[in-house]
Amino acid sequence: MKRVFILFLLLGGICSIQSNAQVSDLSQEDLNELKRQSKLKVDQFNNYISFIASKKRYRSAAEQQEDSRNKDYYIEQALKLFIGKGKESKDTYGNTIPAPTMETSVINRRTNKVRINTKPVGEYLKHLKVLPYTEVIIKASDAHFTSDAKKIGENEYELTLSYAQIYIGKKGEVEVYVDKTRKTIVVHIKRHIKDGRVRWTVLLGNIKVDATE
Amino acid sequence: MKKLVLPLFFFLTTLQVMAIGKFHAIIFADTNDDRLGEGFYANISIICDELGIISAALDMENSFEPQIYQQFECNPEKLREVIRNLKCGSDDIVTFFYFGHGTRSSKDKSDFPQMCIGNDESKWIPLEDVKRALEKKGGRFTLVVGDCCNNVPDGDPVKPKFGVLNAAGNSTISSTQTAAMKRLFLEHKGSLMISGSRKGEYSIYLNGKTGGGYLTMAFCSVLEYYTQKYSTPNWDNILNDMQELVVQITTDIKRQRPDLNIQHPQWKNELNSLKVNTNNNNNINNNNNNIPRQEPKDLLGALVDIAKESNGVSYRIKRRQDVIKTYFSPDAIVEVVGRNGTTSLSEETASDFVNRISTTFKLKNFSIHEQRKDNNGKVTYLKLHEIYSE
User: CA-to-CA distance for B236 and B336, rounded, in angstroms?
Assistant: First the structure.
């Protein structure tokens, strides 16, 4: 088994000796790289979320202002991971693409009812920055693809990735809000040719809540 | 008392940091060769990615800056100069790679090949000589790899050589992989020399931009496999599997090309296990606020510096403009490629690129594949692969 893996890695991963298995019409080699890139972007986004939501006790007003400016800058960078940089945009044919959205869930602990809210990602990130907790911990884990690459148009593909998110809001030492949510994110992949070479763009799309506990 | 303790603390901290050592990577590749130049070139890309991963995992004192000598720089004079100028501390790791043609004389004492470096046969250098010269530099770990043939040409025209370098005298990482690389490179002392084939054999290359030498590809694949899977791998398993893999593949190739030989990589393992407390390394790096920060002197160093999370959010954001102005022309483009070196994953302006890496998480290192500069020495185009930890 070990040898089969290494052999596969060598022949499929590096040499690419005439073994371009096709998924949609992507080569296996490109697909592997694009999946890695998709996972990386989702991972980066979750790290951005965690940083933007983080709270600390400032030593001075200047430090607080600097932290606020830094977080705004992180929001700007996080939005660049998304289609249209998180804003409404146009596709190749001039059709309007709405700003990507983020679903969040809130559990009412008394009734156990879950309420789903949907916001454009930009708004969601700004909201995260000003959450009224003294400490917010957001962790993401267990990311895996729930679909293979799907062709959705000429030179356009889609992948779906699922991950678990744990959200803890604290006031002082008390955890006042905790939930675990499974989310699904759509990743958009676009192929274009420049200088005779294929170039790829990998951008994140809508994020949905699958289940909340 | 306080006056004494504080400098002593800094002194000890600095001492421990110095003990970690530097990581040197020297690559000579005969990319001008008409027949296999592209394959040799592909090998540079494969090994740079792997060395970038090793260097990021080991977290050595210096940023990863491979010294690559190809085309007309791949010559014996340059090799001598590079070895002569190599400054090596007692904790340093020195790696050397040769991708080009190799040969031997039937009278050669060494089982390892002569590197056909340059056009003058009398100046070709035995791989064993490179190993000896590098060992003399006094580093802790020396790795010498020659992905080249080791056969005696018809008529045995090559003169035996030994000691010709003596005249030169005075050259996305998981915690498992980090631990594994530290085990292999920091917990061993001595040298390891590898050649692509045994005496009398050719070393086979898959030519083309996505090709490379079977030895290099197998070495990197097996090293990746073991370090990703096991935190305590050992060199013997890696070397044995590397050999088995090359033998297996070249056996298959021989069925289609009976004129080629089955290639048996060989090695001389003179490494001794050395127990090092690698945790010290992590602790020191976490305390690096106490160590005066040194301005990186080159592009790669500057990029690693700006990507390094331990440098702090504000420092990374503030450094952006300086890095953009110092190294890039105003309309410079940065292309990011995948591990295979060919799949183009993004293309952005240098400014967008630097802005992005100033906030990116877990970005440990870069492997630069290509850079073009304008007349002022500023980068106009940069092609690289980004290396992340898990």
Answer: 35
> Which among A14, A199, A200 is the nearest to B46, CB-wise?
A14
Query: With a cut of 50, which residues of chain B have pLDDT below it?
Result: 1-19, 166-171, 277-292
Chain A residue with minimum CA distance to B205:
A15
Residue spans of beta strands (DSSP E) within B128-246: 141-147, 188-195, 205-206, 212-213
A3-43 pLDDT per residue, tens: 433 443 444 333 333 333 334 577 888 888 898 899 999 99
Tell me: the pLDDT tens digits for A121-165?
999 999 888 877 777 788 888 788 887 888 888 889 999 999 998
Q: In this predicted model, which residue has the larger pLDDT, B158 or A109?
A: B158
- Please give the structure tokens belonging to residue B112: 């390892």
Q: Please list, residue by residue across B241-268, b when 16 or more beta carbons sit within 10 angstroms of its beta carbon and e when fewer do.
A: bbbbbbbbbbeebeeeeeeebbbbbbbb
Structure tokens at B320: 């952006």
If you average pLDDT over every residue of chain A, what do you get? 82
Chain B positions in Cβ-Cβ contact with residue A200 (cut-off 8 Å): 343-346
- Side-chain half-sphere CA neighbours of B95 within 13 A: 20
CA distances from B78 to A100, B28, B42, B87, B93 (A): 55, 9, 21, 16, 21
Closest residue in A to B244 (Cα–Cα): A3
Q: Which residue has the higher pLDDT, A178 or A68?
A: A68
**B192-215 pLDDT per residue, tens:** 999 999 988 989 888 776 678 899
- Do the Cβ atoms of B244 and A73 come within 8 Å? no
To the nearest whole Å, the CA of B174 is away from the closest chain A CA by 13
Residue B293: other Cβ atoms inside 10 A: 10
- Residues 56-115, chain B: which have Cβ within 8 Å of A? none
> In B, residues 262-321, which contact A (CB 8 Å cutoff)?
313-314, 317
Give DSSP secondary structure letters for B146-163: EES-B-PPTT--SPP--S
Residue B130 token pair:
């490179």
Size of interface A-B (CB pairs under 8 A): 95
Do the Cβ atoms of B244 and A3 come within 8 Å? yes
- Interface check for B225 against chain A (CB to CB < 8 A): the answer is yes
- Given this model, what pLDDT does residue B307 score? 95
C-alpha distance from residue A99 to each of A44, A207, B377 (Å)? 19, 12, 41
Tell me what pLDDT residue A6 has: 45
Is residue A163 classed as helix, strand or coil in its secondary structure?
strand
CB-CB under 8 Å, B388 with A66: no
The reported pTM is 0.62
Q: How much is the pLDDT for A1? A: 34
In chain B, DSSP assigns E strands to 23-29, 67-70, 93-99, 102-103, 114-115, 125-126, 141-147, 188-195, 205-206, 212-213, 266-273, 328-337, 344-349, 363-373, 379-388
Residues of B in contact with A49 (CB under 8 A): none
